[in-house]
Structure formats: C-alpha cells, structure tokens
C-alpha cells in the first residue's frame, strides 16, 4: 500500500514537472517566434531603406561615389560612370584606386587628383571646380562619412556638371561688356555736343537752356561713371583688371585725391582736411587705381556728411603697414547693413542728404583694388558719430629692390 502510494506521488510529480517544462517551452517558443518576426520586420525595413537610398542616389543628376575607409566601393551611381565615361565601379570591391585614376586621367590631372583625393582621407568637406580637357566644367564636392559617434567610415564624392552655367555666365559677361562699350561711344558724342553748346558755338544760350544743358551734362557723366564701374567689376571678376605697379609716396596720392574731390566737397558744403603722421611712407601700388579707391572713400564720406561738416583724411604708419583713414561725421552705417557694405550694387537705407547718385559699386571695386595691392580695407563707427573707412597697404622698404617710382 505504501509502496503503491509512493509510486503514484512520483508519477504525479513527474507529470507536474513535464507540464511546467511544456509551459516553459511554449513561452520560449512564442518568444522565439516574436523575435524572429521582429528580426524579419527589421530586415525588411533595412532592405527598404537601402532600396530607397539607392534609388535616390540613382535619381540624382550628379555623379555620386562613396568609399569605405579600406577603399571598398560602397556606392556608385550610373550618372558617375556616364559623366566620366568609364565602366561602372564594382560595388563591394576595393577598386577605388582604379576609379580615381580613371577620373584623374579624364580631368587631365591624374596624379594631382589622386594625391588630393587621398590627402582628403580624414579631411573636412571641400568644394572645387575641375576643368576637363574636353571643355566641360565639373563642381566636385567631397566630405567624410561619419558615424553618429564621429567615427570615420569613409568618404563621399559628388560631381556636378556646371558647364551650362559657366557658358551662360560667359555669354552674360560678354553681353554686358559689349553693351557697355556700345553705350560709351554715343554717350561720349552726346557729352561732346553738349559741351560745344555750353561753350557757345550756337551763340549765347538763355539761362534756362544753360541750366537744362548742365543737368544733361551731369547725367551723362553719371552714366559714363556707372558704365566704367560695371566694366571694372567685370574685369576684376574675370581677373583681367590691369595694374601698373610702381613704388609711390602715399601722401602724394592722398593729396592729389583730396584736391580732385575738393570741388565736389565745396558743392556739398563739406571741407576736406589732410593730416599725416607718416610723411614719406612709400608703398608699391598703381597710383591711378589708388586714386580710384580714394575717390570713392572721399566721395562717400563727403556725400554722407552734413552740410558744414568736415571729412578728415589721415595717414599713419603701423608696423609693416601704412594706414589711410577717411573719417566723416555722417549718419554711420546701420548694423543690419554692415555685413553687405562691400557687396556690389548694395546700398544702405540711410540716404545721403544732398547727392543721391550712386550705384553701390564703389566699395566693391575699392576692396578688389586694395586686395590686389596686398592690402585690406574695412570700416568702423567713429566715436562721437560718423564712420571711419580705412585701408592698409604694406610699406615699401628700399631693401626690396623695386623698379623706379612712376
Ligand atoms: N561714409 C559712409 N557713411 C555712411 N554710409 C556709407 C558710407 N560709405 C558707404 N556707405 C554705404 O555703403 C553703400 C555702398 O557704398 P559704395 O561706395 O559702394 O556705393 P555708392 O557710393 O552708393 O555708389 P557708387 O560708389 O557706386 O557711386 C552706400 O550706398 C552707403 O549706403
Ligand atoms: Mg561710393
């Protein structure tokens, strides 16, 4: 009886254990199923992302190439091989050297391209233009591929064919240049005729006619000035502005500029004062171009000055540089305009009180000229009101063996 009882309880216990194990197995099975479902979904999501990225890459009008740190091609779209006329790079292979060599050869700069590209390995992003021997121009953008933690995972290159933009730009420049030149000739002739009339070739003119003629002359000059400025800007942008450098005494050019602008100052009731604490300081510059810079700074200062005001022109030496300052007591330059003062065609909202002519080109040209002479230009508010425009030019030392001064 006891033995039988013992066996029964053993069986019961075994059954209970089996049932528990079955339950556990059930839970485990369900969890594995859930996990595998999740894994499947995740795989599907990654596959979708990959397809999406690849189709976006393929849809791009730019050629795209991405490479891992070990030189394995991660992605290359069809446009890349079309643009460079090469067989499509094999994704997953370490063929980056072959691809870069092919690109380098086609850009007519095989070694330079490879060198610069490998030099870019850990470098930051960069953008530059590449001129191909077949006349096309590409813009190349390259940047490192970084993980969220900032680890370097490789590099991406993007090439954009900008030949059409370049061509439009060239045609636009040619057009402006041709129109400007065409305008200048008849304008010179109009000005000549008006000068003759004002000089009395038709006999003495009634004072009303004379006044009208003066308006005509003034506006003719203004148009010629704007055309010349536009042509100058074009020359600067095309790197074709000519300079005739010589070693010159800066104070002489300043005195000449002040004298030239004096009549304009008188008309506006503004006095010009020249002060120098560095007489005899010399610079290597083109005196006519320097006059152009001075002319704009002085005319700006005069036209923004109140009637009865004074413009001070100062020359000082600061170490290796000579500094020219033009100080006015005008309205100053509004903070929201300060970042655009040197941009072309930019004019602030403050209106000059009497002379409202101007096209916003003067300072853009002045900056280009000063920079061509290894100098820099800037401005700051004048304590007590007004603005100080200044430019620095490297001082010329005799030990530099110059060509003789002009
Ligand atoms: N001394 C100054 N005081 C106040 N504002 C100035 C001064 N100089 C320049 N500016 C501001 O900067 C703008 C650009 O000057 P910039 O000399 O380039 O053009 P502009 O004098 O208007 O025309 P342009 O010089 O082509 O005849 C001016 O229109 C004016 O708003
Ligand atoms: Mg000006």
Total helix count? 9
CATH class assignment of the largest domain: Alpha Beta
The level of helicity is: 40-55%
Strand content: 15-25%
Ions and ligands: adenosine-5'-triphosphate, magnesium ion
How is the main sheet built?
5 strands, antiparallel
> Would you count the extended β strands for me?
12
**Rounded Rg:** 37 Å
**Distance separating the two termini:** 135 Å
Blueprint of the fold:
Blueprint: H1 2-59, E1 63-68, E2 73-76, H2 78-84, H3 96-106, H4 110-119, E3 126-131, E4 137-146, E5 152-161, H5 163-198, H6 207-237, E6 246-249, H7 250-268, E7 271-276, E8 282-285, H8 287-304, E9 310-318, E10 321-327, H9 362-372, E11 376-381, E12 387-394
Helix pairs in contact: 3-4, 5-6, 6-9, 7-8, 8-9
The chain binds adenosine-5'-triphosphate and magnesium ion.
Magnesium ion binds next to helix 8.
Identify the notable features of this structure and list them briefly:
single chain, about 400 residues, alpha+beta, Beta-Lactamase, 4 domains, five-stranded antiparallel beta sheet, five-stranded mixed beta sheet, 12 strands, about 20% strand, elongated, binds adenosine-5'-triphosphate, binds magnesium ion
Overview of the molecule:
The protein contains nine helices and twelve strands. By secondary structure, the chain is α+β, with helices and mostly antiparallel strands. It has four domains: 1-57; 60-161, PAS domain (Beta-Lactamase, 2-Layer Sandwich); 166-237; 246-400, Histidine kinase-like ATPase, C-terminal domain (Heat Shock Protein 90, 2-Layer Sandwich). The strands form three sheets. Strands 2-1-5-4-3 form a five-stranded antiparallel sheet. It is elongated. The chain binds adenosine-5'-triphosphate (ATP) and magnesium ion. The site of adenosine-5'-triphosphate has 22 residues, from helix 8 and helix 9.
């Amino acid at each position: 009886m006891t033995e039988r009882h013992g066996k029964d309880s053993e069986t019961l216990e075994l059954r209970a254990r089996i049932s528990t194990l079955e339950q556990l197995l059930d839970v485990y099975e369900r969890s594995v199923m859930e996990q595998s479902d999740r894994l499947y979904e995740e795989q599907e999501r990654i596959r979708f992302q990959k397809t999406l990225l690849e189709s976006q890459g393929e849809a791009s009008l730019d050629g795209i190439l991405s490479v891992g740190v070990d030189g394995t091609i991660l992605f290359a779209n069809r446009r890349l091989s079309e643009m460079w006329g090469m067989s499509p790079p094999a994704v997953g292979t370490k063929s980056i050297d072959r691809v870069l060599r092919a690109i380098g050869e086609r850009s007519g700069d095989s070694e330079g391209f490879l060198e610069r590209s490998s030099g870019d390995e850990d470098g930051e992003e960069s953008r530059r233009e590449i001129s191909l021997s077949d006349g096309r121009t590409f813009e190349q953008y390259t940047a490192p591929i970084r993980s969220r933690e900032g680890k370097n995972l490789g590099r991406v290159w993007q090439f954009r064919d900008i030949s059409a933009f370049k061509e439009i730009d060239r045609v636009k420049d040619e057009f402006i240049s041709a129109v400007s030149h065409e305008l200048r000739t008849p304008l010179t002739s109009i000005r000549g005729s008006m000068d003759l009339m004002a000089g009395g070739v038709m006999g003495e003119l009634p004072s009303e006619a004379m006044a009208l003629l003066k308006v005509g002359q003034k506006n003719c000059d203004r148009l010629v000035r704007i055309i010349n400025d536009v042509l100058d800007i074009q020359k600067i942008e095309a790197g074709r502005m000519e300079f005739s450098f010589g070693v010159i005494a800066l104070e002489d050019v300043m005195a000449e500029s002040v004298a030239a602008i004096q009549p304009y100052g008188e008309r506006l009731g503004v006095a010009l004062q020249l002060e120098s604490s560095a007489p005899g300081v010399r610079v290597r510059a083109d005196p006519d171009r320097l006059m152009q810079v001075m002319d704009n700074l002085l005319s700006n200062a005069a036209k923004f000055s109140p009637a009865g005001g004074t413009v001070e022109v100062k020359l000082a030496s600061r170490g290796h540089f000579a500094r020219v300052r033009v100080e006015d007591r005008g309205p100053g330059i509004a903070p929201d305009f300060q970042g655009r003062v040197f941009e072309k065609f930019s004019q602030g909202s403050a209106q000059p009180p009497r002379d409202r002519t101007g096209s916003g080109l003067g300072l853009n040209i002045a900056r280009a000229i000063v920079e061509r002479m290894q100098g820099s230009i800037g401005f700051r508010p004048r304590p007590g009101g007004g603005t100080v425009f200044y430019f620095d030019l490297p001082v010329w030392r005799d030990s530099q063996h110059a060509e003789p001064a002009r």
